[in-house]
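Data availability (excerpt). The following record was deposited with the supplementary files.
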Amino acid sequence: MNVVVVESPAKAKTINKYLGPGYKVLASFGHVRDLPAKDGSVLPDQDFEMLWEVDGASSKRMKDIADAVKSSDGLFLATDPDREGEAISWHVLDMLNKKRVLGGKTVKRVVFNAITKKAVLDAMADPRDIDVPLVDAYLARRALDYLVGFNLSPVLWRKLPGARSAGRVQSVALRLVCDRETEIERFVTEEYWNLSALLKTPRGDEFEAKLVSANGKRLQPRSVGNGDEAGRLKALLEGASYVVDSVEAKPVKRNPGPPFTTSTLQQAASSKLGFSASRTMQIAQRLYEGVDIGGETVGLITYMRTDGVQMAPEAIDAARLAIGEQFGARYLPEKARFYSTKAKNAQEAHEAIRPTDFNRVPDQVRKFLDNDQLRLYELIWKRGIASQMASAEIERTTVEILADDGGQKAGLRAVGSVIRFDGFIAAYTDQKEDGEQSDDDDEDGRLPEINARENLAKQKINATQHFTEPPPRYSEASLIKKMEELGIGRPSTYAATLATLRDREYVTIDKRKLIPEPKGRLVTAFLESFFTKYVEYDFTADLEEKLDRISAGELNWKDVLREFWTAFFAQIEDTKELRVTNVLDALNEALAPLVFPKREDGGDPRICQVCGTGHLSLKLGRYGAFVGCSNYPECNYTRQLSAENGGEAEAAALNEPKNLGTDPVTGEDLTLRNGRFGPYVQRGEGKEAKRASLPKGWRAEEIDYEKAMALLSLPRDIGKHPETAKMISSGIGRYGPFLLHDGTYANLESVEDVFTVGLNRAVTLLAERQSKASGGRSRGTPAALRDLGEHPDGGSMTVRDGKYGPYVNWGKVNATLPKGKDPQSVTVEEALALIAAKAGSATKSSARGKSGAKSKTAAADAKSTKTSGKTKPKAKAPAKAKKSSE
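Predicted structure:
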């Protein structure tokens, strides 16, 4: 019996059927170990030694694999055919070697590009060894991403409060989004006019021709820049007679595009199906691993992480055979088509994404797939079959027309095209409703019969005003395309990179467009100012090229790491000398359009509109950046860093409280105000006045009396729990909307739920929360807000949010944070000090309990000793930084 290791249970189940009783197929469930999310996991001073960690679930799975291998004849590592798959096989083999269960057993690596019986059996008959250079490339990439993320992120925390993380590829992708936003802000709109004539042939057919020249001068696009010039040209056309100067019909051919790669599939699925990159990869994974078709699990597409554009020779033969059968001999070119990618640093080792069987047309599998799976499969099938079909033959007609008003002359042009033979376009129209355009049919409209030298009748002259528009914001699809063009990242990382930018709240997606958040722009401006080299597009692409050369066996991976780390570490050290004023000056300059938007009165946008003498500047607070006046505290003007969400005028208006009405119970005024951390509502005046910040998504201009009363009435009592008879309440906390019952919290999905959730729903949510808690933690234990790493004496340190506020937890020690301390800003040193103080206090209390009450003299002596010199903990745990995606 042989053991076969794959990644997923679904894949294991299918392959087990193919191989039969002589094999036992087990799943690793992806990676079996990873670098711990704390400092010290990669050690540059020890030749980049990497300390791997195995979690509990992976340990159990590895034990199952090891037990199976002990009694087996051999081991086949059949993980995915890419760098990550090679790495998983290497990890499994390394752990089995350390467990000493292999002995003299045969160990082989097998790869297959499709999960079909033939592909799997062919791969098993042709095994190989682990590809060491490919593993080295994985190790280099993993170490680089770790070293950047876990060294650069702490710099951001110290110098730029509110920032969460940085990453080798993540930060460069964010820069692309932010640079585009800067382009949009600095774009200057220009006016231009288009002129055209609606003309009629002697046979009564109408068509439109566009003005392309006037008085012997060729007009470039947008060259007619104002209404006066447009008016003169329109007058010329109004008084002119028209004659056809020439008619040229030219045959052209359109060739199909190559089959999909990972990035082109993500782009097409985004533009045509509206899928996010991560959604596309989830569906493609399912199609690759297999679906049940008539009682048999079949993989429908080949492996979906690839930047190759070529298909295997046998797949090309199968596609050509299917074309002849399904479309006819005319649609089959004489020779097969071969493609090569134009993407920078692309690897051609893998096949493009294609159907595993071209005869399995979308209609045949429709009943076995859900709607999204069918749509993606149809997209892949059409692109794959079309890539081997004949070219489309198109006749493009260009008509040149002369306009003459007796003194001045102008030239007009009309262009139309007709598809004489649809060729590969038939693959896109074959299964569509009659009259529906194909995905590729973007040709000009058809012209009527027009003959040279014949006169045309003028019907109408159109002069339309337009204004130039800034470049569009990136969509997920266009950002992926740009990253691929620049050679930034790899196809398998794009979806994760985009997800990280959203999770870090560096970008938001509105109508499928990526919009950088202020904190994202701050991070980018900071990195561009102080880590310029590491967010340059060429530098990142060159590093990707070196990683590819490592996988090809051309470079030593540790040499690449040494070269990178030497310069990067020096740059990190230099930032220790940075002063806050240096950071603020750089950010004020880099983000001027965002920080200081133009004023409607044309005044200096950096002069405070409230006091009239102070200068506005970025300020760094506990929760991030904001704009404030240099005359503080005499002038307390502040506003949030967001030109879109309210802007200067709104903030200025809120500097004076806006009265919303009167509380019917207390008789106090309800007001809307603007503070250091944004707009808020207040009831009454003075220190005792009740205040409530506006929840995320609520805008100041939308706040009325009812909303203010609702916010100020929180927490809201929902009703008594039927089991405990204790009150359930809802509210909005630092981490979002919540339910509270007897010290137990449960999250609510939206702010609106806080005001509308009923008793039954609240009881259900709390029960679900308790169920989850009992599965992984003791009853009532709050979830960790932040992991601080290992305590020097062992055991993890975390920051949690409890009934009486946030606290640091280490084992059985819970140390409350000082009032006003942001849980996300707690350092390891601060945590150690709090834990030491708490533990010391607990020890003294215990001692007092055992020895009885002390005398007043002894108490005074103890107090004197305590105030004369505190002892701080000497041990220092490694600083923890958030794990960053590429």
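Summary of structural features: Residues 430-442, 643-654, 776-780, 843-886 have pLDDT under 50 and may be disordered.
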